[in-house]
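Our preliminary data section would be incomplete without showing what the modeling component actually yields. Below, a chain of 193 amino acids is followed by its predicted structure, encoded as tokens that our downstream tools consume directly.
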Amino acid sequence: MPKHLTEDTPLLRTPDMYQIENDAPITEYANETLDLIADARTSGIPDGANAFCSVGKEKRGTVQMQLFARINPATDIFEQVGFRSHGCLAAIACAAAISQMLPGKTLEEALAITRDEIEAVTGPIPKGRDYTLYFGVEAIKALVGDYLIREKQLKLEALDRIVRCERMTMECLLTENCSLRDSRVDLELGEDW
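Predicted structure:
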């Protein structure tokens, strides 16, 4: 067992936030990060959610962020956003931060959110866990893409003009599991069949 852990070191386990392993020592996490997780008022699925995404990677267990949103179809403005996340505390914090950042934003404003803006809300993420910031940006793209496919019935060509899929980039390769990538494949197959 690592020196910084004891047998009674608690893991975060709720229906919406599930820490799958003791990752970095808790002392490596900023107070802002821990406060954000402790006050995770946006966890869960909002009533009337009309957009969903899931992004993550499998490495010693699955690291995953799921975002759920209710977006007003008349204005394309995020009304409410919730999350579920499992993995390290950094992944949970990023999902919580995004769910607080998106309400009131347009789709375009959401897609403009950067890793640095997410980290400004979470506080500094420990080295070796900062890949979760990439997941966060990809999750926003996937959430917007799901909404455009589900609510606006966009086809692949129109979707690509709004939410570009940058295949084989570092972000794409790092985010091994992406619900929007899966939806794009479904659209490609559906259009070709």
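Residues 17-192 form a domain with the Sufe protein. Chain: A fold (CATH 3.90.1010.10). The helical segments are 31-38, 89-101, 107-111, 115-122, 131-150, 156-162, 170-174, 179-192. Preliminary results of this kind motivate Aim 1 of the renewal.
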